[in-house]
Structures are given as structure tokens and as C-alpha cells.
Amino acid sequence: MPSNSLPLPITYTQPFKALYISLRLASIFLLIPTWTLWHALIKKPHPSWTLKESLISRLIRWLMPINAQCGLHPLSLDKTQEVPDSKLKETSFVWIEPPESSIIRGAALDRDGKVKPVRVPGYVWPKGGVIGEGEGEGLVGLFFHGGGYMMGNGSEYFPETQIAREIYKRSDVTQILSVDYRLLHESCHPGQLLDALAAYNHLILKGVSPSRILVIGACAGGHLALMLTRYLYDEKVLPMPSGLMLFSPWLDMSIDLKLLSGDTTAIRPNTDIDILATSHIPNLRFLGNQPRELLNSPLLSANLAPPGSYKSYPRTFISIGECEAFRRECEQLHQLMIAGDVDVTLDVQPDAVHDFWGFGDLVPSVKAREALAVNVVNWIKRHGKGKMVEP
């Protein structure tokens, strides 16, 4: 067990894992009728939500702890296998080669030498597109999916890549590279940073100028996007991207351990209504053998950076829902960026929960998703030419 870590819960081993999952799932049959009566007759989590939206939000929050408590990694793919072109409808598969050693330093180095750069899969919108070819001056997106570093993949079939799909279809972004970076069961830090660095370097090696790159991330992918940008800012191994787009980004890796120690001031807002349920377990698994103090650093907790940390940062778009648990952290990051004279936009959609664009129609609300899409298109258009679109 890493020296900085608490023991993993007993639910990581059988038969306790199976028992925990079974009880969690079986309890739904009792909870659904209870929630239905409560929200229909007494109080909904949010006044504007329908009964269906209220129930689905409660259900997602009830199921979400299973991954952290049991070490599951649903919807992850084998990163050593190439996906045949015949199985992809919208994208093309590419291999992203490890970054060369000359750009690996500082935070990207594993102090024990156990975490190595590896080749990882990527998926390019549009299908048949080749990064660096086509519209030479067009914007190129680098997308990192979410899932708390525990689940998901970068392919077109993971629901959250809906964000990348919509940006490609609606905006002036001409290509998007979605990265299937390593998850916690495959690597601890700095494996994820190395994969992100490899993908960014891949774009540059293919002839894409950093001035054309938008780094895009949702939830944990937003955390990874910020981690990559902080690394580039501090180490100066490659030029900075032209912009950052963060959708419900996970920012503060220190909060869950503070809560574990009884610090009630660390309680996130909206935890009683948001779909999100967080845990200290993935944070410590992420650290591996790195010192626990790293959780409080600007690299892993962007909202805790000291004043002046964002001077000369790229233009940034931050999207959050009014009802989400990460709202306070995102507002803190927004203020830090304003203080650093960053051209930053904080888009707060009413009635919306965590990652509402990525979850799609499962969560509130259609109106929020469409409004966000319009705001995203308009924000991107400021990087190039074209008429503004109207809501």
C-alpha cells in the first residue's frame, strides 16, 4: 500500500464487493417508491425539475459511489488494442505515441520510476480525417473525457463524448482528437499527465500550431486539461494552447480528505441535489506514491493556486450547472483567472447539474444544454471568422 494512502475499503475484495453492490442495487426497489412519494407530494430537489428528472438525479447519485467503493472501471477499453475502422461511425482511430524524454520533466516524472510513458489510443473527428491535414487554419480540439479517472473511454461510444461531437458539429472547430488516457486501474499519477502531454505533442508533431489548439475537458477530463496546461505553463517544454474549455471540471482534490478529517467548512454546496457523489478513495489512488501534499498544489487543485498563478494563461471557458457540487471551486478558479487578467468566461446554466451536457437527456435540462451549446459556439467563433449564432 502506498505510504501516503489510507487502506482501501474492504469492499475492494470479494465477497464484500459483491455484497456491497448487491445491497446497493437491491435497495433501489425500496428507494424509488419512497423518493417518488417524497418528490411528488412534499418536495422536489429543485422547483423546476419534473418528477422524472428528480428521480433520475437521485438514482444517479445513489449509484455513483459504487465505482469508488469497489474499484470498478466500467466502460473502459483495452488500450493495447486498435479499434477497427469498421466499428467506428464518426471517428478514425489513431495511436498516440509516448512523448519524447526531452519534454518530460518536473511533475511528469515519477519519483519511483514505475510510471512510464506509453502509447495510448485516440479518436479523430471527422471519420477519415487526418490531424494536420485539411483546413490549415482551422481550430483543433484536444478532448479529455470524464469519469472521475475511474471509468469511461475516449471513443465515440462513451456518452460523454457527446460534448466533443456537438462542438465538432456546431462550431468552427474543424477536427477533434479525443484521448483514451489511462485510468486509475491502469496507472496512478503522473500516467494521466503523460498521456495528455503525448496527445498535445502529437498534434504539434502533426503540424498543428498551438495557436490553433483548444484543450477541452469534462469533469475529470477538465481536471486533466488544467493539469496539462499548468505543466506547460510551469515547465515551458511546449507552447501554450490558444484556449481552454472546461465543462463541470473537477478542480479540488483536497476537499474529500478534509471532509474525512471532520472539516465541515469543506462541504461542497448542492451535495443534496446534485447527481455527483465524491470520495477520497480515487484521490489517493491517483496519487500513488506521490506525497499527499501534492493534492493541495496548483497542479492537482487549480482553485487553490496562489494569486498570480494564471498570469498569461490562455483564454478560458468554464461551464457549470447552477445545482452542481463543483460550483464553488469553479467560481474560485474564475476569480483567480480574473485577477490574472485572463480572458475567462464562467457560464452558469440555471437548473442544471454536474456535467449536464455530457449526461444528455438523463439529467436536467434540455433548455440548459441548448443554451450552453449556443454560448460555446459563440465563444469559439471569437477565435475565427463567422457570424454569431442566436439563442
Automatic annotation (TrEMBL):
InterPro entries, sorted: AB_hydrolase_3, AB_hydrolase_fold, GDXG_lipolytic_enzyme
Keyword Hydrolase: yes
Pfam families membership: Abhydrolase_3 (PF07859)
Keyword DNA damage applies: no
TM annotation in the entry: 20-42
Gene Ontology MF, one: hydrolase activity
SUPFAM superfamilies in the record: alpha/beta-Hydrolases
Domain (Alpha/beta hydrolase fold-3) ranges: 142-357
Keyword annotations of the record: Hydrolase, Membrane, Transmembrane, Transmembrane helix
Coiled-coil blocks: none
Name of protein: Alpha/beta hydrolase fold-3 domain-containing protein
